[in-house]
Amino acid sequence: MHLDDRRRALAEAMDIQGLWPADSPWVRHAILETIPRHRFAPDRLWTWNGHDAYVPVDRAHDQDAWADLVYAGPEDSTIIQVHDGLPSSSLSCVAVVADMLDSLMLEPGHQALEFGTGTGWNAALLAARAGAGMVTTVEVDAELAAAADRRLAAAGLGVTVHPGDGNTVQPGAAPFDRLIATYAVEQIPWAWVEQTAPGGRLVVPWGRLGHVALTVAADGKSATGWVQGLGLFMPSRGTDQGRAFHTVRGNDGPGRTVQVDRDLRRLADAHLLFALRVSHPDIRISTSAAEAGFTVHLHDGVSSWATAVIGTNDAATAYEGGPRRLLAEVEAGWDHWEAADTPSLWDFGMTVTPDAQTVWASTKRKGPYAP
Fold first, then answer.
1. Active-site residue 236, yes or no?
2. Does domain 245-339 have CATH number 2.60.40?
3. pLDDT in tens, 29-72
4. Per its UniProt record, what InterPro entries does this chain match (predicted)?
5. What is the pLDDT of residues 319-342, one digit of tens each?
6. What is the dihedral of CA 104, 109, 113, 119, to 10 degrees?
7. What does pTM read for this prediction?
8. Phi, psi of 247 (to 5 degrees)
9. Does 367 have pLDDT greater than 70?
């Protein structure tokens, strides 16, 4: 299949799922026509081999496999770099890119700052909207920065690529009208707010599960806004990602048996999952459904884990190991969510000041959301 055919197939999938932002029609045109994704994809990509490792896929050796990775599904990212066996940079999935650009409310003539250049594709999309010479992008990896600079220069978009650590560097041209990050942070750096003009907007992936859009107050002393959508983002470089579930569990047997009184299949609910991410940010929850039943895995990335399987007869079997009682902690967070009238993920917001970051739920109570 030709690259243009793959691009059309991806566009159709986005159309069918209603993922193109209605309020920002420029996003669809930029992604499909002005700044096609494959022009910013490196010749070597990476994919999971299905067992134990990420393996390279080179354009020169397998053009079709390479193109399949570039134009995968709307919610599939394209891995461009692997460090120590784990993905460290990617072309973000098209659905999330479109959603974040829509959330940014970028207009022609805005000065925009991006943290996390990667391939340069997102910076190119920003420039297609804001205009040549209006976008500055920061990349901590010197090799990625240099390659992105070459691609952006070839596209003639006038983007300034600034090598450095986005968590600390402050490039010139501040204050910016818009700021966007393409990697996740647990704490929004106050320096990012300081570099954004009063009334300006920041769109930032928060933790492992979603992104927020914040507006800087008129006095510049705070920024506040709402959760905009879900999506998994790579953390800032150097972040300890913790151990994977299988390494936390190890080979020490099934662990202790745990009584389960709730229907754990509800943990597939995105709104409940987000509330648990807020109340218990260190507990990682994954679910999977198959003909044999529904499986839940919990772990803290350190030493505690839990697993439960709900069979086709609705009977649940649960085990856990380690010092923490993760299922009980999740149930406590679940109780708190229900006591708060089950706010949806869209009901959550954040306020950032120089001294604190507060996550709250609903428009009625802007106190911290915590059990």
1. no
2. no
3. 999 999 999 999 999 999 998 877 899 999 999 999 999 999 99
4. PCMT, SAM-dependent_MTases_sf
5. 999 999 999 999 999 999 999 999
6. 90
7. 0.91
8. -80, -30
9. no
